[in-house]
Amino acid sequence: MITRRSKNGVALAAFPVAALLLTGCGSDGGEDDETVLPVPSEQEPAPDDEAQPDDAGQDQDDLNALYERYWDVMVTLENSEDMPEPDIFDGIAGGELLERQMARVRNFKDSGQWRQGEPVVEQITVEVDGDDALIQACVNEDDWDVLLDGEVVPLAPEGSTPRVMEAERTDEGWLLARTQDAEEATITC
């Protein structure tokens, strides 16, 4: 499993918490003095602002999970000596990103290379704008070795570098669509 840390280390709550304080007013204490409070029934839904989850927060949670699944697939894809089928990205990535990553890894494997270990993915940030989203993270591949014909290729450590990816909402849900250059990142690693 890939090591991940959220931006602030705390998961966002999906539902707001509300407190209700009730105070009683003067009563003569008689037997007929009974206070009845209205309770919403199943036919009477609570107001939308209290009953509905925070859609933006749900989108961010969904996109965080999608990005983590993407890195799980990338580790599987690159750590395998054989070339997996493109369906490994089903429900995760499509279009330009899928074609680009499959071609890149195919060239990698055709030259006798694969990887072992895994990257550290942290500081994932998500910005949602309607049906488009921008995901940024710091990725450290120093412990994700490249092997050539079974031997570790010595590479200079780079440390964490920013990664920027675009996602789009489709009829099936969010899909990662394309990468952007690291220079486009607004996060610092």
Strand content: 25-35%
Number of helical stretches of at least 4 residues: 3
Main β-sheet description: 5 strands, mixed
Number of strands: 8
Main structural class = alpha+beta
Evaluate the radius of gyration. Answer: 25 Å
Structure commentary:
The protein is of the alpha+beta class and 189 residues long. The chain has helices spanning 48-51, 55-79, 95-110, and strands at 3-6, 113-117, 120-129, 132-140, 144-148, 151-152, 160-170, 173-180. A hairpin with a 2-residue loop joins strand 3 (120-129) and strand 4. The longest helix has 25 residues, at 55-79.
In short, what is this structure?
By secondary structure, the chain is α+β, with helices and mostly antiparallel strands. It contains three helices and eight strands. The longest helix is centred in the middle third of the chain and has 25 residues, at 55-79.
